[in-house]
């Protein structure tokens, strides 16, 4: 089957009335929650997870994807209008975007963000369609040893690109892997780390863990800060950028899109790295780099296109290899597993409708963002003024109900309470939760691949270095670690993160 | 002994604690041999790595300077955790309406600038909305009213 008939199949699935509705609903809800100050995209996706559980898997994933794009766009809106980026990936947008808003050009900033994202989304949809099948075919050749090394490499890459201390980040990955092992061992039936709790036999509920950390623990941290009055920048004006603006931005959007599409595939990259890199590149190639940081529209167009392209191509490793490149993708994997689907190279051959339906819905989702969001800018601005004291009880209530409804199991709620304390401590101690979530999702899979690899090699651990592919992944992982350990590069990385 | 980097020190200690729990619990599981990896193999390996990383953090925090931990404010985190536990205790028997309105009302007091009347109104609105969304729109299997 060639790519175009696949895309056609995808649109056949995604363009049913029902799925378009879910996609639009997802994009809308994602934006509504994502726009609320203090709620980033990961929190949004985590909180809205339970909504999708009653749907059938394809619709659920389509809706989740819609929520993700919506949340991302909502984050950019807050970054531009009130200079509070919901997530690190929109930090760069706030540099020039908020300056523009203060000069009374919030409208064009929001407009170019939406249009740039839409263009990037369209291109990225094609990148996914062309890039995913060969990758999945390649992955089908992988044996357990190759998979184990690939996952190891992916986790290391995610750690390297995370912020803050590397030792802490690796420790968080390892801890996440350990948490992931709780519950009945598939092979021996031994119950591990259940500490006598009957409800833990099926392991730690992923939704409880992510809602505890990204939902409620974050509320606790936010409440400790002094409440600040939100100052929404003056007049928004027309959201349509002028022709001159658009022409000015075309090269930036193109560069941002290509950079974002490539970087999104990398583990740990996704939207965050893409937007940073795009902004830096724009500053390098611009003839008058001085205007950056002073409200240059290209400083909004490039990172916004890049983070959307990256957000979308980060689906490639998730859907073809089953490897999450960021916490949001980990949540998607969690959602798929709730529906009984294990992401991996088989999804494309076993469930082509699901795979291509999701790919097609990416494009529809991006269209929805332009069609739905631009006219509703007035509503978003009103949401921005919502005081936090009215929002956080809603977050808490939603997380409680959401966690309980998954299995109607009180243990999950108790587990959530435990992880709220844990997540709070982590945030207090500057231990990034993202690596933990990635480790948690990959834990059981890594153990299984390790077990199978050793079974096939009859206990000979050299199997990981005798297979060339596996060796390649291990060398890549080692190089990555070595690179960040070098003082010179370490300094640069810290600078880049600060900027 | 002077702790120079409190954030690193305490996170190292946290990792060491989890590693210790992991090793203790996993010591009861079989390690397996040769090509047959037992249920204890991977957890023990992970716990050992975690212990090593924790130890590095703790030792490093005694040598290198680092940030201090921001003061912990007990009210928000305590109220939120209690809320969640209360919800867990109430929901199976008392149903969604009572549990959720209690939880959202109590949760409001995790903040400093909460007004009781406003919190009460908010909890009513949120409960009505949630029943609408979860029970009627999404048809999740939740009992709305108490059942004995």
Task: Give a topology summary.
The complex is a heterodimer of chains A (499) and B (148).
Chain A (H helix, E strand, L loop, with lengths): L2 H12 L2 H19 L5 H12 L4 H26 L8 H12 L3 H35 L3 H18 L4 H16 L1 E2 L6 E2 L13 H19 L18 H23 L4 H16 L12 H16 L1 H7 L5 H12 L7 H5 L1 H22 L3 H8 L3 H20 L2 H19 L4 H24 L6 H4 L1 H18 L1 H12 L1
Antiparallel strand pairs in A: 1-2
Helix pairs in contact in A: 1-16, 2-3, 2-4, 2-16, 3-4, 3-9, 3-14, 3-18, 4-5, 4-6, 4-14, 4-16, 5-6, 5-12, 6-10, 6-12, 6-13, 6-16, 7-8, 7-20, 7-22, 8-20, 9-18, 9-19, 9-20, 10-11, 10-12, 11-12, 14-20, 18-19
Chain B lengths: L5 H21 L5 E2 L2 E2 L3 H23 L10 H34 L8 H22 L11
Question: How would you portray this structure in words?
Answer:
The complex is a heterodimer of chains A (499) and B (148). Chain A is mainly α and 499 residues long. Chain A has one domain (3-498). Chain A is 75% helix and 1% strand. Chain A contains 23 helices and two strands. Chain A has helices spanning 3-14, 17-35, 41-52, 57-82, 91-102, 106-140, 144-161, 166-181, 206-224, 243-265, 270-285, 298-313, 315-321, 327-338, 346-350, 352-373, 377-384, 388-407, 410-428, 433-456, 463-466, 468-485, 487-498; strands at residues 183-184, 191-192. A two-stranded antiparallel sheet of chain A has the order 1-2. In chain A, a hairpin with a 6-residue loop joins strand 1 (183-184) and strand 2 (191-192). In chain A, helix 2 (17-35) packs across helix 16 (352-373) and helix 18 (388-407) crosses helix 19 (410-428). Chain A is globular and about 65 Å long. The N and C termini of chain A lie far apart (46 Å). The mean pLDDT of chain A is 82. By secondary structure, chain B is mainly α. Chain B folds into two domains: 6-63; 74-137, no CATH class. Chain B is 68% helix and 3% strand. Chain B contains four helices and two strands. Chain B has a two-stranded antiparallel ribbon. In chain B, a hairpin with a 2-residue loop joins strand 1 (32-33) and strand 2. In chain B, helix 1 (6-26) runs antiparallel to helix 2 (41-63) and helix 3 packs across helix 4. Chain B is flat and about 55 Å long. The N and C termini of chain B lie far apart (59 Å). The interface between A and B is large, with 67 and 74 residues.
């Amino acid at each position: 089957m060639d790519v175009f008939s696949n895309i056609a199949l995808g649109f056949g699935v995604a363009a049913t009335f029902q799925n378009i509705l879910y996609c639009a609903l997802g994009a809308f809800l994602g934006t509504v929650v994502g726009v609320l100050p203090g709620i980033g995209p990961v929190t949004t996706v985590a909180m809205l997870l339970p909504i999708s559980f009653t749907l059938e898997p394809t619709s659920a994933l389509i809706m989740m994807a819609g929520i993700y794009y919506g949340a991302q766009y909502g984050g950019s809106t807050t970054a531009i209008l009130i200079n509070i980026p919901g997530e690190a990936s929109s930090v760069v947008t706030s540099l020039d975007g908020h300056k523009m808003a203060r000069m009374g050009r919030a409208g064009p900033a929001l407009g170019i963000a939406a249009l740039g994202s839409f263009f990037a989304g369209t291109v990225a949809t094609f990148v996914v369609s062309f890039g995913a099948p060969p990758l999945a075919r390649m992955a089908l050749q992988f044996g357990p040893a190759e998979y184990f090394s690939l996952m190891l490499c992916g986790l290391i890459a995610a750690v390297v690109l995370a912020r803050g201390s590397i030792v802490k980040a690796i420790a968080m990955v390892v801890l996440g892997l350990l948490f992931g092992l709780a519950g009945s061992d598939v092979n021996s039936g031994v119950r591990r780390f259940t500490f006598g709790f009957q409800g833990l036999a099926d392991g730690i509920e992923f939704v409880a863990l992510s809602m505890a950390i990204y939902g409620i623990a974050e509320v606790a941290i936010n409440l400790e800060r002094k409440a600040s009055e939100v100052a929404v920048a003056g007049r928004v004006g027309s959201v349509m950028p002028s022709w001159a603006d658009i022409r000015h931005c075309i090269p930036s959007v193109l560069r941002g899109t290509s950079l974002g599409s490539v970087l999104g595939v990398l583990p740990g990259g996704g939207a965050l790295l893409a937007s940073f890199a795009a902004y830096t590149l724009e500053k390098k190639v611009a003839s008058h780099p001085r205007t950056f940081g002073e409200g240059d529209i290209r400083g909004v167009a490039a990172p916004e296109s890049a983070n959307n392209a990256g957000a979308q191509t980060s689906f490639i490793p998730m859907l073809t290899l089953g490897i999450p490149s960021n916490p949001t993708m980990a949540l998607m994997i969690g959602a798929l597993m709730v529906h009984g689907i294990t992401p991996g190279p088989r999804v494309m051959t076993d469930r082509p409708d699901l795979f291509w339906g999701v790919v097609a819905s990416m494009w529809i989702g991006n269209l929805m963002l332009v069609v739905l969001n631009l006219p509703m800018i007035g509503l978003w601005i009103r949401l921005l003024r919502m005081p936090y004291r009215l929002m956080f009880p809603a977050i808490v209530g939603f997380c409680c109900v959401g966690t309980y409804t998954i299995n109607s199991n009180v243990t999950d709620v108790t587990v959530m309470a435990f992880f709220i304390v844990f997540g709070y401590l982590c945030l207090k101690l500057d231990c990034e939760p993202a690596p933990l979530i990635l480790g948690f999702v990959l834990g059981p899979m890594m153990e299984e691949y390790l077990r199978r690899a050793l079974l096939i090699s009859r206990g000979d651990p050299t199997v990981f270095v005798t297979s060339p592919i596996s060796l390649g992944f291990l060398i890549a992982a080692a190089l990555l670690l070595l690179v960040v350990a070098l003082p010179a590069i370490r300094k640069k990385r810290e600078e880049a993160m600060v900027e | 002994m002077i702790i120079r980097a409190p954030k690193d020190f305490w996170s190292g200690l946290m990792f060491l604690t989890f590693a210790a729990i992991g090793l203790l619990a996993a010591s009861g599981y079989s390690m397996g041999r040769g090509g047959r990896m037992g249920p204890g193999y991977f957890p023990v390996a992970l716990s050992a790595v975690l212990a090593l990383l924790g130890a590095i953090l703790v030792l490093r925090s005694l040598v290198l300077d680092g940030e201090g931990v921001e003061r912990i404010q007990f009210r928000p985190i305590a109220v939120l955790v209690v809320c969640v536990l209360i919800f867990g205790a109430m929901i199976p028997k008392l149903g969604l309406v009572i549990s959720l309105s209690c939880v959202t009302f109590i949760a409001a007091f995790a903040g400093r600038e909460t007004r009781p009347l406003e919190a009460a109104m908010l909890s009513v609105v949120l409960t009505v909305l949630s029943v609408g969304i979860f029970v009627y729109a999404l048809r999740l299997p939740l009992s709305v009213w108490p059942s004995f």
